[in-house]
Amino acid sequence: MNISIITVGKLKEKYLKQGIEEYLKRLSAYAKVEVIEVPDEKAPEVLSHSEMEQVKKKEGERILAKISQDTHVIALAIKGKMMTSEDLADSLDKLATYGKSKIAFIIGGSLGLSNEVLKRADDDLSFSKMTFPHQLMRLILVEQVYRAFRINRGEPYHK
């Protein structure tokens, strides 16, 4: 399975980089996983609604340029479907069973994802009703993908 994590912005925090690198190393035994960073759109702190939509649209175009037609896209969105770790494991297992070997998880920037990206997504996934920094979501996501592979292989994992 080939998994891409397409995310907006550069990761600066050393502790997050170290955690992500650790899980990517662990995941390499199960799948080919790559993190693709697209530049975030520079914008002032205070934006009007239309300016926010413009920022999301520009970031969305960068995201969509990284997705091939045969990729199953899972967008991380607050309004997405909530799953347990076992549900995510089952979902990934079913995708593999039905020949979906290319999967892309999309993490938007601080303003979220554009409507175009959400329309392209095959699934929307929410980790919580809470809002998390998009940099932290990278770490949470790679840990959960790793956990999903462990669950599917019947290997022990922390509960």
From TrEMBL:
Catalytic activities: pseudouridine(1915) in 23S rRNA + S-adenosyl-L-methionine = N(3)-methylpseudouridine(1915) in 23S rRNA + S-adenosyl-L-homocysteine + H(+)
Subunit structure, interactors included: Homodimer.
Protein name (Swiss-Prot/TrEMBL): Ribosomal RNA large subunit methyltransferase H
Role description: Specifically methylates the pseudouridine at position 1915 (m3Psi1915) in 23S rRNA.
Keywords assigned: Cytoplasm, Methyltransferase, rRNA processing, S-adenosyl-L-methionine, Transferase
Family: Belongs to the RNA methyltransferase RlmH family.
InterPro entries referenced in this protein's UniProt entry, alphabetically: Alpha/beta_knot_MTases, RlmH-like, tRNA_m1G_MTases_N
Amino acids binding S-adenosyl-L-methionine: L76, G108, F127, S128, K129, M130, T131, F132
